[in-house]
Amino acid sequence: MTATDKFGHLDTPLEASSSPALKFEVYARCSTTKARASKMHLPHYTAHTPMFMPVGTMGSIKGITTKQLEALDCHVILGNTYHLGSRPGPELLEKAGGLHKFMAWDRGLLTDSGGFQMVSLLKLANITEEGVEFENPHDGQKMMLTPEMSIGLQNAIGADIMMQLDDVVSSLTTGPRVEEAMWRSVRWLDRSIKAHKRPTEQNLFPIVQGGLDIELRTKSAQELVKRDSPGYAIGGLSGGEAKGSFWRMVSLSTDILPTNKPRYCMGVGYAEDLVVCSALGVDMYDCVFPTRTARFGNALVRTGSMSLKQGRYTSDLEPIDKNCDCPTCAKYTRAYLHTTATKETTGCHLITVHNIAFQMRLMLDIRQAIVEDRYPAFIREFMRIRFGKTVPMWIVDALKSVNVDLTVPDSSGYSAEPVADDFQKVPNTWTDE
Amino acid sequence: MALRFELAGAKASGLAAPRRGRLVLHRLVGKDAGVERPAIVLETPAFFKYTRHGLQPHLVPEVAAEVDALPPATRVQIEDFFDSDAPDCSRFEEGLHKFIALDTAEILMLDTLDPTISVRTAKPANTYMAIGSEAGTKRLTPDLFAQLANSLKPDIVIPLADIVEEPLPSLTQGKRISKSVTRSAKWLDECTAALTYPAAVFAPVVGSHSLELRTMAAKALAARHDIAGYAFNDVCLTLPMEQKLNLVQHSLELLDASKPRYMLGASAPDSVLCAVLRGIDLFDSSYPYAVTELGLASTYVLGSDGPAKPLPYSLDLWQDAMFADFGPLVEGCTCFTCRSHHRSYVHHLLKTKEMLATVLLQIHNMHWYQRFFDDIRRSLEQGTLPADAALFLQRYNCKEKPFSELDTLAAQACSPTTKIQRKRHAESQKP
């Protein structure tokens, strides 16, 4: 099903950056929004951005072979350092020649720092200047994850992109703790850079922090830019905060981060978020949502999510999406998926394949629209299909900030009315799968 | 429907002897009507691919395609489609091939119950077979089965029968078996009468452990001309395989020897060999599925070379020794899993309950099972099967300890990556 991007023919980048293990080339810029289409040359693969990266916490995307992932046109996938560090552990991964070899994946890999799991999964995590102190779930012993240890683990895993250990606070936290965490994350970045043993083979991305505070986030981004890293992540968001704050923090960050380097917005995966954030100048995303929701019987479509367990699909002989070119839509009807979804693991795999294909197709369409400089029209069409007349306020506001006004009718006559609802009842920061 | 069964060599007989043959299907109606199509050929002894909801366990079609040379034959049990009520026929307007996305170049067999589930609580009555569903017990009548078959358009049907559910002969009174024989005969009549689609009918051969009643049932079947084959799905569950085969043999001697014979619950390699030696032609791939569920990779080999002393017939990927073993599951194996991945990775996937573990194991185990059947057919052609089978049974010490993976499915199948069956497995492995 692999469709190729339309910037294969472009050979002169508009701007670029080069570091020992990453070359980033911007090939097209939207003339209206902050969106751009780029190539990111990694040690294992040249990824095209904006891109979505499926999450393979334990060294596999749930039930999907690496050969399928290639056929689905995945460029980079995620592994979780905390999980891989405990099982199979860094010694074995080193012995196996790194995670790429261990799982037989030849394309790009990205690992998180493990810090998020420390805080989210483990009770009694205690953060000190030294690192994150936590109780080992196996023997109850006190243990410590320091920035140096996180980098050590990630060096053993050998992913193309590593993340710094940051001091994670909930996006709902306010007060001095946010500032403390922001500055500590900067100090931990410096320790991480010093500890990084394989700078010519792996890239270390810092993470912009600062909660929902404009000043703190600005300061954080400015500090990180001074470190001249190969790329940057925007973190501490997608934790259940108001979407109005979310997009402002993203946009503020992309305004400060260098335009010739990749920007990665962590934990984002809803289709509308991908379209909006790409307009704000983000290049990379990850989220467990598409694969996790598949296992609950939900198939992603441009209009939203289709809960195939519902009785209305009992005799529906259409595919999930007749325009989708994934192997599942080529063969199966909704009625069939209704009978297998959630009952058979194989039925879940069918929907997982579709959902990954959906994300990849969406990102491909976004890239094409940017390259052909019709991204604003693409956004309008996308929002019309997804929301119809009533579009969440935060989307209207975010797009207005990049010169796309959904409330003004376009040539097709479409215009939107903003509604206050965020359309996001649950936080979508699930970084492990 | 033109389903032919051709036996190679000697004239068909009811005596206990292995047979090499082929099942040849030429569809004359439905989707193939008026279309010149090559016949579908299934070389026997063969297995039908076991499916759940029409899908091979763990394998979506593009992954199943990684397994080379699988037989063009698939079995589906209608009970999978009893979600909350009887399946709605409108779902199957274009037939079951289309609904489950099965290639039309596959022989599709429609059965009633899942052969891997042997413990059942729902009780049948005079007029229906009981099917347990999410919404309680559902009734499958002969008429409903025929209606479903008419819209599903399978190539082969195994009509419903009243299977004696008690696992032990001692628990089963003669009256229960007698009732089963009477009901099954009546249901078969009703089913065939209401069947308008020309599917080949494989009749259940019943009678449980009563020789007298088996005789009665077999004689009645032998007199019928509308039966294309036989399905042995009513032999006492917990009897040793040789005793089960004796019961099968008793019926076989009375039945039309030119017709194909499918035996359920005999898919373990040692059982397959014993059954083939008694003249069984068809099996299903429940066994590799059971192996996969336990986190094992098959390693058994049929052939005259190799050591005669007992060897393990599977590799336990759960064991700690796999942790840093970067070899393939089986050295020299050409399956997708062995070409792409090593034991250490599969071990890690099992330990972390990743669903890819069972995907990779199922690919290997199906590849291995297919190869095993290839070996059986070759051995039969060369006339060495009795000796090869004897060596196999000795090599893997089957007399003392039969292949038992299928038993683990008996009390409801559970995947090591979904519900933990590890404890039971560990207990079963204790000496």
UniProtKB/TrEMBL annotation, chain A:
Names of the cofactor(s): Zn(2+)
EC number of this enzyme: 2.4.2.64
Top-level taxon in the UniProt lineage: Eukaryota
Pfam family, one: TGT
GO biological process, one term: tRNA modification
Active-site residues annotated for this sequence: D112, D286
Keywords, alphabetical: Cytoplasm, Glycosyltransferase, Metal-binding, Transferase, tRNA processing, Zinc
Any one annotated GO CC term: cytosol
The keyword Oxidoreductase appears for this protein: no
Residues involved in substrate binding: D112, S113, G114, G115, F116, D166, Q209, G236
Cellular location(s): Cytoplasm
Enzyme class: transferase
Annotated GO MF terms: metal ion binding; tRNA-guanosine(34) queuine transglycosylase activity
Membrane-traversing stretches: none
Catalytic activity: guanosine(34) in tRNA + queuine = queuosine(34) in tRNA + guanine
Region (RNA binding): 267-273, 291-295
Binding residues for Zn(2+): C324, C326, C329, H354
Gene3D superfamilies the UniProt entry points to: Queuine tRNA-ribosyltransferase-like
Family of the protein in this entry: Belongs to the queuine tRNA-ribosyltransferase family.
Description of how the protein assembles with itself and partners: Heterodimer of a catalytic subunit and an accessory subunit.
Function noted in UniProt: Catalytic subunit of the queuine tRNA-ribosyltransferase (TGT) that catalyzes the base-exchange of a guanine (G) residue with queuine (Q) at position 34 (anticodon wobble position) in tRNAs with GU(N) anticodons (tRNA-Asp, -Asn, -His and -Tyr), resulting in the hypermodified nucleoside queuosine (7-(((4,5-cis-dihydroxy-2-cyclopenten-1-yl)amino)methyl)-7-deazaguanosine). Catalysis occurs through a double-displacement mechanism. The nucleophile active site attacks the C1' of nucleotide 34 to detach the guanine base from the RNA, forming a covalent enzyme-RNA intermediate.
Name this polypeptide is given: Queuine tRNA-ribosyltransferase catalytic subunit 1
Species the sequence originates in: Coemansia spiralis
The organism's taxonomic lineage, starting at the top: Eukaryota, Fungi, Fungi incertae sedis, Zoopagomycota, Kickxellomycotina
Gene: QTRT1
From TrEMBL, chain B:
Pfam families with a match to the protein in the record: TGT
Main localisation: cytoplasm
Alphabetized UniProt keyword annotations: Cytoplasm, Metal-binding, tRNA processing, Zinc
Location of this chain's protein in the cell: Cytoplasm
Gene Ontology MF term list: metal ion binding; tRNA-guanosine(34) queuine transglycosylase activity
GO BP terms in the entry: tRNA modification
Family named by the database record: Belongs to the queuine tRNA-ribosyltransferase family. QTRT2 subfamily.
Protein name as it appears in the record: Queuine tRNA-ribosyltransferase accessory subunit 2
The species this protein was found in: Coemansia spiralis
